[in-house]
Amino acid sequence: MRRQRRCLSEAKHRRYARDLCRCVAQSRIFQKSRHIAFYLSNDGEIDLFPLLKLACKRKKRCYLPVLGLGHARSLWFLPYQPGAALYRNRFGIDEPVHQRSTRQIKVQSLDLVFMPLVAFDDQGNRLGMGGGFYDRTLAYLHNRRQWRKPHLIGAAFDFQKVKQLDTRIWDVPLEGVATNKKLQLFPRESL
């Protein structure tokens, strides 16, 4: 999957990013969310930048994940506006520059989190890059009887869908997946 997404032409990457943006922008879940975490694409991941720019234009508060603040194996989220200063973390992924005056936000305060992935299935399972950062950050959701927020939406190319993924006890399921073809929400029972 990683090789396949890296092999897409730049033109296809741009077109599929615009298609994903169109699918998500009209959804109720996006329209109602005020605090949204995005990611900056890496390793051929589908680009959320068009959606992030639209969210900023609609006066939503946008955030990006950051490693190493607080518990080093979890994620924190910092505010982001297009054009803000970025630096490369130890994995080569761009992050907002953390300054003393920058107010970080805990994941529990977000309405919607877009998560990168390598593969997904119809049960809401997600295969990430193997670091477990999102699963550790969202582990508190295993203790909730009623899952309210944040909404967890994977972002992928349509071809990243597989029949079934093996899961581990620590895996946190997705509520849906946004692709270049549609926004697919999973039944609540599977969560």
Overview of this protein structure:
It contains 5 helices and 11 strands. With 191 residues, the protein is α/β, with parallel strands linked by helices. The chain has one domain: Rossmann fold (3-Layer(aba) Sandwich), CATH 3.40.50.10420. It has a 7-stranded mixed beta sheet with strand order 3-2-1-6-9-10-11. Strands 4-5 form a two-stranded antiparallel ribbon. The longest helix is centred in the first third of the chain and has 16 residues. The mean pLDDT is 89.
Q: What is the compact description of this entry?
A:
With 191 residues, this protein is α/β, with parallel strands linked by helices. It is built from 5 helices and 11 strands.
Task: Supply the helix-strand structural class.
Answer: alpha/beta
Question: Which CATH class applies here?
Answer: Alpha Beta
**Major beta sheet, specifics?**
7 strands, mixed
User: How many beta-strand runs?
Assistant: 11
| Gross CATH architecture | 3-Layer(aba) Sandwich
Strand content: 15-25%
What's the CATH topology label?
Answer: Rossmann fold
Gyration radius from CA atoms, angstroms = 16 Å
Number of helices, counting only DSSP H or I runs of 4 residues or more: 5
Percent of residues in helical segments? 10-25%
Query: How far apart lie the N and C ends?
Result: 25 Å
Strand order of the largest sheet: 3-2-1-6-9-10-11
Mean pLDDT: 89
Overall domain count: 1
How would the global form be characterised?
A: globular
Note the run of SSEs as H and E. Answer: HHHEHEEEEEEEHEEE
Unreliable residue stretches: none
According to CATH, the homologous superfamily is NagB/RpiA/CoA transferase-like
